[in-house]
Amino acid sequence: MDLKKIYLSENDIPRQWYNLAADFKNPPPPPLGPDGKPVSPDMLAPVFPMNLIEQEVSQKRWIDIPEEIIEILYRWRPAPLRRAVYLENFLKTPAKIYYKDESTSPPGSHKPNTAVPQAWYNKQFGIKNLTTETGAGQWGSAIAFACKLVGLNCKVFMVRISFDQKPMRKAMMKVWGAECIPSPSKETNAGREVLKKMPDTPGSLGIAISEAIEAAVTDKSGQTRYSLGSVLNHVLLHQTIIGLEAKKQLKSVGEKLPDIVIGCAGGGSNFAGLSFPFVNDKINGAKMTIIPVEPKACPTMTRGPLTYDFGDIACMTPLIAMHTLGHSFVPKPIHAGGLRYHGMAPLVSHAIKEGLLEPRAYDQLQCYESALIWAGTEGAICAPETSHAIACVIEEAKKAKEEGKEKVILFNYSGHGLMDLTGYEKYLAGELKDYPLPEKELQESLKSLKDLPKL
Ligand SMILES: Cc1ncc(COP(=O)(O)O)c(C=O)c1O
What we know:
Elements: E1 5-6, E2 16-18, H1 50-57, E3 62-64, H2 67-73, E4 81-83, H3 85-91, E5 96-101, H4 112-124, E6 129-134, H5 138-150, E7 153-159, H6 160-165, H7 167-175, E8 179-183, H8 189-197, H9 205-217, E9 224-226, H10 233-239, H11 241-252, E10 260-264, H12 269-283, E11 289-295, H13 300-303, E12 306-310, E13 319-323, H14 346-353, E14 360-362, H15 364-377, H16 384-403, E15 408-413, H17 421-428, H18 439-446
Parallel strand pairs: 5-15, 6-7, 6-9, 7-8, 10-11, 10-15, 11-14
Antiparallel strand pairs: 1-4, 2-3, 4-5, 12-13
Helix pairs in contact: 1-10, 4-5, 4-10, 5-7, 8-9, 10-12, 11-12, 15-16
């Protein structure tokens, strides 16, 4: 009988994170400051604690995970690797579909894998308060959870559209003791400026990031820092525990490397977490198709240029070399709130440039259709973000059937959708539509890149 759940003993939890930055043939371009020169670590010090900045710029391949962090991660890690045999049977595919079940964390997604270390390193550095932004609310609830366990105060700026669509995520943040504010808000200059120009805006991650950074750097006590749930190198680093566990688990059931690795990508963290340990094999000659998946409504990797851009609408972050739709881009209100970001992690963007990844985009309706197939076969209700990965998995499994090949597909089940049922309800009532980004809107948004440095 094929195993459906592959567990890893607690003793076998990875004790180091993997840093892809150490292994690129060509190094990624550095972030730039306002003067167009590479940023130095101390320029980031008002925003992040120095111990995380060290990880951000590190070129070390392996970075030790402190024992105290592992003790917290044991609450749900190692996460199970599962085999989607019920979906395989439904699709009558010869492909073997494995997935890392990141929905088993207390907040319900992969986000606590970095929320916990980020809170812990801030606490070590003597910080008392963290500010952050959240799209779908998964990150907000993860950082609220981590701050509670580690003992920090937490303030979350939540993109307004998600604040309205996902009231239960707010409740979760409150249960873990965090304050949650809809963004744009009147609390910050950045928020007030946006509200003046666009009073009815659904908000965006770019706006919420500006608010959260401003709230951190304007705190005169010096005891507040900002925390980001994706995009940055240290965030992706913390997430590699997913792929490192998956490797051990696949090996334990006699699989070699997967043929195809898939993850949805908003800022890139869950995708990178699963895939980067396998990208390492690809760099060393292994043959693998590695696919980050995004929405057609926010097609950062598939249609956005790779260039320098700001991470937020108020241009408070350094200039980052990434695939981008322009920092002023406000995506349409698709339900995958966590995939509505204008940029893509620099390490993911660079890996695309190096020919290591093959990004793909799907429309929201196909993703919901795939989520329903998943719910009707595997049983679980996935997050709308995760449904993008599942849409791609189903396509690849069908292709394997056409080709008659027993491919091994591995994907990241980044979160459950039990707090996202409004989207499902609307889909079932036929009220959702697709929003492929019109070329004219893309060109308009890219104008915000005009005066920025080029690669
Ligand atoms: C369940 C889930 N999957 C994926 C994402 C996308 O983020 P990232 O690309 O950083 O993994 C999010 C973001 O909120 C999420 O909540």
